[in-house]
Design goal:
A hairpin with a 3-residue loop joins strand 6 and strand 7. By secondary structure, the chain is of the alpha+beta class. The protein is about 60% helix and about 15% strand. The protein folds into two domains: about 240 residues, Beta Polymerase, domain 2 (2-Layer Sandwich); about 70 residues, no CATH class. The N and C termini lie far apart (about 70 Å). Helix 3 packs antiparallel against helix 4 and helix 4 packs antiparallel against helix 5. The longest helix is centred in the last third of the chain and has 75 residues.
Length: about 300
Amino acid sequence: MLQKYSVMNGRIVQGDEGSIQVEVYIMPDEAERSKLINEYEMNEHTIASSIDPDETPRIEFEDNHTAFILKYPKNYSADDNFLFRVKSMGIFVFAARVVIIIDEYVPLFTGKIANNVHTVQDVIMKTLLLTIRHFESHLRVINMCSDELEHAIVSSYDGKELLNMFTLEKGLVYYVNALNGNRRVIERMRAAAIKLGFTEENIELLEDISIENRQFLDQAEVYSQVLSGMMDARASMVNNNLNVMMKNMNAIMIAIAIPSFLAGVGGMSEFTMMFGGNYKVIYPVFVILMILLALLIFWVIKMIAKHN
């Protein structure tokens, strides 16, 4: 699917009436790929790399354009079950055109980020800035999920929350690798600033983007280290909860077994004869006595366990 934008009056707007064309291809089909390869002379492998989540971020200089492969966070949904993934994005920069290839819809040019754009270099900076800032919101969601799992794991018995925490940590590893890859791309962009036609203003913005990327990388590393470092303690907490539950179950079984033994030895008929033979009165009394005896035994077991 193709979405067309253009630069008009210093702003990126939808449509192709502006001076600089910005084409966003979302999971391009065969016809669109053929157009990119034949008309724009784009490399087929690089196009495939743009939608390959395992591709390494990089810059490639071609005869008529420059290709950037970047990483950005995949849109998270409840079906992902705490697994935060990353995807690849391809930015192909021509003299008066920018082609962006992604495999799912991402709101690129909205709000203030679409302002103050006059050249293709400005389009690169704005797209890169949006891609890096996309990690911020996802890291905030990861932190919220981590807090939620920490509270749930206190009373967990089956270890489900612990597995979800492992999954969350795995997603943070993806984020750390992605931000590291983007960092290397930013460093190479800074080294090739003259070749890419960056102005002083572009270079200053690139420095700001590099700082933000470093901050989000540090944040992701801290979250990952905290989750990894506390995993053993949380596993011990789950085991402790399970042990407590098993002790309670054993206490209940003992409390039930003793009245059952007495009822089996004495029998309902003997008990009925001892108290006059009226089973309509004796049977409820017998049941109540057994329940009270079971509760008493359970209480005694709990008191002994608490004292120990």
